[in-house]
Amino acid sequence: LKVRADVDVGEPFDKLTIDVGETALSAIEKAARQRALLVTSDGVEGLVLTRSGKERAAGDIAFPGDLVVSRGAFSARQRFSD
């Protein structure tokens, strides 16, 4: 598993306790919260340790292609059979 840190993550932990039955990702996230870090995927089988931004993005969010507006009508009618 590849891990990349975009920010300073601090010194290594002296001791880290993992609970019985706890998953690896849960243990990583618990340790990251102690350092105010976010654990995200890099999209290519790895993890990125980062922090949320303090500034807004330079531009607006752009929809893919020429999409300007999207609407939908959803109903749960006839969801279940008799």
Characterization of this structure:
- The protein contains 1 helix and 3 strands.
- The chain is of the alpha+beta class and 82 residues long.
- The mean pLDDT is 84.
The ordered H/E elements are EHEE
* Helix share, percent: 10-25%
Strand order of the largest sheet: 1-3-2
What is the subunit organization of this protein?
single chain
Please state the average pLDDT score.
84
Major beta-sheet overview: 3 strands, mixed
Q: How many strands in all? A: 3
Rg, rounded, reads 20 Å
Decide which structural class fits the backbone: alpha+beta
Q: What descriptors fit this protein?
A:
alpha+beta, 3-stranded mixed β-sheet, 3 strands, flat
Give the SSE map.
Elements: E1 2-5, H1 24-34, E2 38-41, E3 46-50
Structure at a glance:
The chain is of the alpha+beta class. The chain has one helix and three strands, in the order βαββ. Strand 2 (about 40) and strand 3 form a beta hairpin.
